[in-house]
Amino acid sequence: MATLGFIGSGSIGTRIAQLAIAAGIDVVLSNSRGPETLAETVAELGERARAATPEEAARAGDWVVVSIPLAPYRELPVTALAGKVVLDTINYYPMRDGHIEALDSGETTTTELVQEHLAGAKLVKAFNNISDHHISALARPTDAADRSALPIADDDPKANASAVDLISRLGFDTVDVGPLTKAGALNRRPTPTRCRTPPTLTP
């Protein structure tokens, strides 16, 4: 049985978890406050969901969604995430995260920073340009004419294929925008385009 792990179980993580369960995927949720604080969320999600520590969620997942503020990214469990396909939803907000010169100057992207920390993981930038309520509202079956397309960026073809398969099971098509160096263009939050043809993305 496939399992999707979550490091960070706020509104984005919880909405993705709902879609995963609907697709027959087990979920393991975690946050920085401890598994006991997720008891209500797990109860609402049902028997396919359980709570754990971030390291346990990382080890349990066939894929892992990281949905945390950028500032504590160095706390992500390096060893537990080694070899995993990690869907990075993180956005950079200086007023929340503090200013990071390399990001302010465009020298690098948030996902490149996280990838540098998680050297053994395979990061895919995804689900960071969509509002939490749109995750549930816009998910559609594979053959739906109004299925939305979400942009992704990554540096690994196998990770890309795995992420595309997962995101399709969750209810969305994907648009490959290229390597992680292009991920900065995804930090805006437009409403996803409802179309079968990939939309044009502006940098």
Describe what you observe in this structure.
The protein has 203 residues and is an alpha/beta fold. It has one domain: NAD(P)-binding Rossmann-like Domain (Rossmann fold), CATH 3.40.50. Helix content is 33%, strand content 18%. The protein has nine helices and nine strands. β2, α2 and β3 form a beta-alpha-beta unit. α1 runs parallel beside α8. The chain is globular, with a radius of gyration of 16 Å. The N and C termini lie far apart (39 Å). The C terminus is likely disordered.
- CATH 4th-level superfamily: NAD(P)-binding Rossmann-like Domain
Task: Specify the CATH architecture.
Answer: 3-Layer(aba) Sandwich
Query: Count of DSSP E strands?
Result: 9
Straight-line N-to-C gap = 39 Å
Shape category: globular
Alpha-beta content class: alpha/beta
Order of helices and strands: EHEHEHEHEHHHEHEHEE
In CATH's first tier, which class applies?
A: Alpha Beta
Can you summarize the main beta sheet?
A: 9 strands, mixed
Rg on CA atoms, Å: 16 Å
| Portion in strands | 15-25%
Helix content: 25-40%
* CATH topology-level name: Rossmann fold
Residue windows where pLDDT falls under 50 for at least 5 positions: 188-203
Mean pLDDT: 91
